[in-house]
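Appendix B. One record, verbatim.
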Amino acid sequence: MSISIWQWLTIIFGVVGVVSVLLAIRFHRVRRPYWAIETGVLIRDFTSGFSDLQVRYRENEIKNFSVSVIMFWNGGRETVRARDVAQTSPLGIIPREGVEILDARVLESNNPAGGVRCRIAGPGDGVGIQFEFMEHGDGAVFQVFHTGTSSDDLTVQGHVVGAGSPVKKRVGNKWAGFLLVAGMAGFFAAVGSLIGAVIMTVIGFTRNWTAAWDWFRSDVTRSLPVAGVVLGLMLAWAAFEAVRTTTQPKRLKFTSVSRPE
């Protein structure tokens, strides 16, 4: 069977289109401020039956005490500079209403030349995030002590010109969902093939192999649409999880929450 010139052109333009899309994704320069958070609750709803027993952090009497680790980084390929942060909406770690930030510090930065630092503006205020610049993959890990009880009690807000507000991400294996779908699809395909082979063998020995083959073709024809819908839904779920999840920036350790020294 020969391939016509139009079929060759279709194949060539298709390959060129796919390569162009991949190159555009690879070299498209944008700013993408991301953040992720983990929280450990050390004291929750402290009450005492003794009038002289109190829990304080420095001079503050508290009932809840939590430690959050927040990672902030530039996931885009365009460098974010200090001048790119809107003065009317600076970057900062903002507590939910009723939650007080007690202290904060920079645990580590994967590019010290970027000058990442943080400071608490005042009692009850958020933590300002400042830096000179963040190149692709640059970021820092902050440790925040506060009176909240979950990761939902803190958010990273602000506005970066050309990128908008920082986007919350989950740190992990970006392709774990696809690997899971591939593994599950392979498992079910193997089980289905084994069951089909057993049934075909039984029909072949009890009747004839022509009847067995007819059964197999009709069964597969009925099953393919259902299998396609199920696999499509699984891939859609995996793609959604991949969008929500991002890989950890190099030279940054998003470790579990540590206790204050």
